[in-house]
malate dehydrogenase
Amino acid sequence: MQPLSAEVHQRIARISAHLNPPNLQMGEGSVLERSSCRAKGGAPGFKVAILGAAGGIGQPLAMLMKMNPLVSVLHLYDVVNAPGVTADISHMDTGAVVRGFLGQSELEAALTGMDLVIIPAGIPRKPGMTRDDLFKINAGIVRTLCEGIAKCCPNAIVNLISNPVNSTVPIAAEVFKKAGTYDPKKLLGVTSLDVVRANTFVAEVLGLDPREVDVPVVGGHAGVTILPLLSQVKPPCSFTQEETEYLTKRIQDGGTEVVEAKKGAGSATLSMAYAAVKFADACLKGLRGDAGVVACAFVASQVTELPFFASKVRLGRTGAEEVYQLGPLNEYERIGLVKAKKELAESIQKGVSFIRN
Ligand SMILES: NC(=O)c1ccc[n+]([C@@H]2O[C@H](COP(=O)([O-])OP(=O)(O)OC[C@H]3O[C@@H](n4cnc5c(N)ncnc54)[C@H](O)[C@@H]3O)[C@@H](O)[C@H]2O)c1
Ligand SMILES: O=C(O)C[C@H](O)C(=O)O
C-alpha cells in the first residue's frame, strides 16, 4: 500500500477533530457554539427549550422539534447525556440550530431567550405505581426548573409533561406566583396524549381513520380525572352503553396499558413525544398569530369550581387566550365529571401545598 501523503494526513486529522470535538458540551467558543453561530443565518422562527431532553420522551421529542419548520433554535437540557443527544440531533439537515446544556449550572443559559419551554423531566411509572407515586421526586424537579423559567424566560409559554400533571401544574403556578411572573395563559399541562389515544381508540370502534376523528378529553391527566366526552365526538356518532364504558375505561387506562406492556422499562415515550409535538406545534402556531388554533390542555380555569381543569383552549399570541366551556354532557359524563373533580381537587391542593407550606 502507498504511504499517505501529508495532505491526506491533514485531511484525516481535520475530520477526526470534527468527530471528536474537544469541547462539544457547550459554552462560549466551543465547537458547538461556533457551529451554532454559523447556522444562525438560517430560518426565522421560535426558540424552544426541552428540559429532560435526554430521556425516553425527551429524545424523540427533540428529534421531532428539530424537524419543525417553526423552530429556529432548539435548546436541549438534561442532567445527563445532553451533549450526546445534542451532537446526534444537530446532524439533522433541518433549519433549527441545536445547542445542548448539561446540569444545573447550565440551566439559566438553556432558558434565556426562550419562547416555549417543554418539560418532560422526571421519573416515569413502573407497573403497580400511580402517577401520584411520582410526586415525591418530580415535584422538586419541576419546582427547580420553574424557578429557572421565572428568572430567565418569564414570558415563555410552558408545556408541562412531567407527572403527576394534576399536581405539577399547580406547583409551577405557585412557583411563578412567588416570583411575581405568573401568567395563567402561559402555563399549560400537556394532556394531548389522552386526546391522541381517544382519537385512536374511537376510530377503531367506528372503523374510521383516526385522523378524521376528534374527541374532546377534559378534566385532568390521571385515571378517573381523564374524562373523554364521547357525546361530542366529531364526526357526530353514537355509541352503545357497552362501547361507551369500554372506550372510557381504555382511554383512562391508556397510560397503564403502556406501563404494563413495558414491564418496568418506563411509560409511554414515543406516542407521548408525538402528542407533545402536536401540542407544541399548536402553541407555536398560536404564537405566530394563526387563527382558530384549538387544543385540549390542563390550565387555570373557571369552567368548574376548581382552579385548574383540562378542556379545549384557543391558543394565540399570548398563550391560552380562551378557555372553552364543556358543552352539553350526557348522564354518563356528568357522573364521570363528579368523580373527576373529587380526585382533581385533592391533587391540585397537594401541588399548591408543596410550595406554600
Ligand atoms: N403528560 C403526559 O401525558 C405524560 C406521558 C408520558 C410520560 N409522562 C411523564 O413524563 C416524565 C418523563 O418520562 P420519560 O419516560 O421521558 O422518563 P425518563 O426517565 O426516560 O426521562 C426523564 C429525563 O429527565 C431527566 N431529569 C431528571 N431530573 C432532571 C432535572 N432536575 N432537570 C432536567 N432533567 C432531569 C432525566 O435525566 C431523564 O433524561 C415522567 O414523569 C412521566 O410520568 C407524562
Ligand atoms: O401513564 C403514565 O405514567 C405516563 C403518562 O401519563 C401516560 O398517560 O402515558
About this structure: The chain has two domains: 43-188, 190-354. The pocket of (2S)-2-hydroxybutanedioic acid (ligand 2) is lined by residues 124-125, 131, 163, 193, 254-256, 258-259, 267-268 (CB under 6 Å). The domain at 43-188 is CATH 3.40.50.720 (Rossmann fold).
